Amino acid sequence: MIYVVIGFLWISLLIYLLMGGADFGAGILELFTSKTNKSHIRKISYQAIGPIWEANHMWLIIAVVILFVGFPVVYTTVSVYLHIPLVIMLMGIIARGTAFSFRNYDAVKDRMQWVYNRIYVYSSFITPLFLGVIAGSAVSRKVDTVAGSFLSAYVYDWFNWFSFSVGFFTVALCGFLAAIFLIGEVKDDESKRRYKRKAVQMNAAMLIWAGMIFGSSLADGIPLLKWLLGNIISLLTIISAAIALVFLWIAILKDQVISMRFLAGFMVTMLLIAVTYSHYPNILLLKNGTELSLLHHKAPDKTIDSLGIALLIGSLFILPALFYLIYSFGKKDQQEAV
């Protein structure tokens, strides 16, 4: 049953990165859009993410609950030593959700719309930034559980080039996913060209920050190249992601909406496999040379069994409800368009 629980943890993170990534990415694109086009992207992004924006964070909640119940040592260590970026990320989630609601559902359109818009776009940037920072810190061997000072224990473990490079790469990836998704939501050629340009810009930013990740990993002695190229699974998934990116751009140029969305999801899946398989089952690499493992630092077997059963049963309700939510919003948009 432990592998069922680990599988749900990994899938929850993947879905959150894909769906939440496109969600956050819409705000990121709006942040880097000219004033004349901001209203257009607000309208399109609302139509696109409206069905799932509230459900996105369900996947993050599931991942947190799995860590809390199934891997309490991992949960405690992360929540204590990485509490600063965690709090910033959570504040970003709350601020973004609040601003999204008020700017789209507020009955009175007044000067506060300016405030809501600013909160929305900046929190859309900050949240994936610190999500990536936390992910980078988890594998950077910067977390020092025996630190003798506040800065060593709670700041230096995440405030470094490698962690922020991963964070900015995550931001660019979210913007790229949003651009890919929004290309299929618009009908006129001018809008399609606009979001294709956004996709080019975000793809370029991804490559730049990927280079920063490798450079900072070399500077900090993090064996990232060995992780990605030192085993056949990670190597094959990296090659698959690169090939998918090539075919993705072919699909973009040909306006093949279904293909581009599938290939974008496939590329992200391959990247996540590559970066997680290389040090599996270790999930948190500590500065003292030890690791926290999903297999060795788990809850008692009875707890894991109960958690696995609950996840299996819950999935029977969650997934159909999510599909129905997307379907019902799609019908609503069609009726409003008539």
Automatic annotation (TrEMBL):
One Pfam family here: Cyt_bd_oxida_II
Gene Ontology BP, a term: aerobic electron transport chain
Molecular function in Gene Ontology: electron transfer activity; oxidoreductase activity, acting on diphenols and related substances as donors, oxygen as acceptor
Keyword NAD listed: no
Signal sequence region: none
TM annotation in the entry: 6-32, 53-74, 80-99, 119-139, 159-183, 204-222, 228-250, 262-280, 307-327
Keyword terms: Cell membrane, Membrane, Transmembrane, Transmembrane helix
InterPro entries: Cyt-d_oxidase_su2
Subcellular location: Cell membrane
A GO CC term assigned to this protein in UniProt: plasma membrane
Record-given protein name: Cytochrome d ubiquinol oxidase subunit 2
